[in-house]
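Troubleshooting: if your tokenizer reports a length mismatch, compare against these two reference records.
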Amino acid sequence: MNLTHRRVLHIALPVVISNATVPILGVVDTGVVGQLGLAAPIGAVGIGAIILTAIYWVFGFLRMGTSGLTAQAIGANDKPEVAALLSRALIIGVTAGAVIIAGQSLLFAGAFAVSPASQEVENLARQYMAIRVWSAPAAIALYGITGWLIAQERTGAVLAVQVLMNGANIGLDLWFVLGLDWGVPGVAWATFIAEWSGLLLGLWLCRAAFRVPAWRDWPRVFDRARLIRMGVVNGDILIRSVLLQAIFVSFLFWGADFGDVQLAANQILLQFLEVTAYALDGFAIAAEALVGQALGRYDRPALRRAALLTSGWGAVICAALAIGFALFGGMVIDMMTTAPEVQTAARHYLPYMVAAPIVGVAAWMLDGIFIGATRTTDMRNMMVVSTALYFLSVISLMAIFGNHGLWLGLLLSFILRGITLGLRYPALERTAVLPSFH
């Protein structure tokens, strides 16, 4: 199949649409418990969801690792390995979910020790999590299924799973909480059923893999070399993701030192970054699939074209976002807060959000390219370098420029990630050569 703009959009657009549905669920969850007329249930659902999302996020590597490895197996036309990779991902996901269920008491106790809440909120949050945690195997296994489908360019199937899960969750939220008056446990049961329903649909969409005997060829599935390879890839991605999270967490913590108004303004502006990430995610995922397949075929021209095509679209999207933020950012800020001092502060720092998509596009797109190529050691090492340079520079910048220095440091972290990965790109291309045996 030729590498065309149409093919890139065919992969990317369903992901962009799927991402757009994610915030809707949080709004409905909050809105439904808000109808109970009490503050505690809103706080309980919010903190319970954040804790579980943070725990599940640790296993987000399964999506990216499965995507890159599967894309390369598809490029190499290794159908048995494609099927075996799905089995491995499902086994890892279900096992991880079972471990979370077994260790829930310790995990939840640790979470509330780090972020304590009032006794009423904590009790309600524990009720919520004690129900929802039983869908952990489904939620984490879905990371693997999503990566496996992305590698085959089946992002429409990923969108279908997301729509089913969010639609079921919203419908059941309304029924259980407003119709049956189940309160906070009703929200948890809605998510529990939605996540298991999503897994069932995901398995059905992957049914072709179960027609290939290799999915239960256990010597292949548990092949030591392949498991080590998958473990190394996933481990590298986990370390890279933890370091990336450290940058954003430090940004939030340091922002609090500049007062409540600046903290609120920073929080509002971070939503612009979230929009950028959601919009670019589709094109980074297209890079994962197309680069991985090209590398699996040892087709260097196709790899380069995949990298250029997807990055070109990423650049177009980022330019459009920058223009949109410049023209309409102030209006969006005024819609997100009615506090005049927060509006003024957020508008003052808005130029950083106009610049963010432009300076960040290389980092976002190269992430997708390197995941598809499973050059995860490079990703890990360059992230270590970028994070170290970020922390060294942001402390100095804050001392001189205050909150401006904090924003400059965050933008610098994007630039550093783009430069360091860009320096490793030629080595990535050199791997797309059929190995010779003597």
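Reference record two:
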Amino acid sequence: MGKILSLLLLLLLAVNAARAVEVIYEQYPDKVDLWVVIPYNSLNFKKGTELSEYQLSLQISDSRKKQVAAFSKSFQVPSRNWLSETGLPVRFSTQLKSGAYDVQIQLRNRALGEKRDFKRHFSITDNSTEIGMGWVVAFREGLQYIPNKLEKAGLDSLKLQQSFSLKLDSLMVRYASATATVNNPQSPLEIDLLPLLEDGRTASLSMTFYEQNIHYRMEPFLFTPWYAYSLRYSLPDQMQQLRYIATQNEWQVLRILPKSKYAEAIEGFWKANDPSPGTVRNETRERFYQRVLKADEMFTIHKKLKGWSSDRGRIYIKFGEPDEITTETYPLDMYPHIIWTYYKQNLQFVFADTKGYGQYTLRNKDEEY
């Protein structure tokens, strides 16, 4: 498209996936927006209480260790089943010059005295984010949160909050057959989504941005667990996982890099394989992360035999969910076996448990390549 790629620094700050805090930076000509998303399931409640109070503190320092920005916010969260698998957003805005920065975050439970500290390094460039993340923010019982799915029941309101630096002709939001169009939109923009939703209907929400003869399409941000990927896997593991989907030429470059270059190379790989440049979302990357996490969940049989590195895990990551799975209790070459069939790709993979402890290996590797 000949457009400058949007700046999105997705920083995953935590000691483990359950305590993950996601930080997303969007840079605009007059400010930098920082969204901190806290998983509701990571919060703790004092025994016998249904209300927890937290304080979030954030400090940003430049490359000379000088503090350039600081924020603090207190918030109360009720114990509610409908908040499970959602995220609580906290938004800050500041002005930052181009350069390298360290961000320090502390999340403190005031009742329990529990503190969690996170730190990460990031950089700001001269380029503005063209189209920022489409934030779906729900409001219920006075609390705002990012839902994991779209549903109307029980909500006081449901807003789409969108920022951008492009001069757009129009923006269209579509849910099933319902649409809402804004002509000559001005950033930041807020759209009421409740009129588009129908009780009981399940559909995806999409946004289309029109700029003269160019249009961008993306999906808004709903809370999903895929971001835990970078917390769970080391950079060497991430490089080995990329081997599954990288072209031969891409892998020849990646495989000889020193470990000090892994983080930069991984970001470069996903930038080059972004199906929607000009937007902050990379759907291919998200789908890959989800497959790796699911493969680990389904196929890990021992801490030293990770599901993602197994034969079934590799095929799942490369090709996704099979269209049909056939399990044979009768032996194939004296071993139990499983057959995965992918009809669209005209592929069939045969896995056999040759050692008798559930570690199925691929028998027809030629089919994979």
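Descriptive notes for reference record two:
- The longest helix spans residues 283-299.
- Residues 9 and 25 are 5 Å apart (CA to CA).
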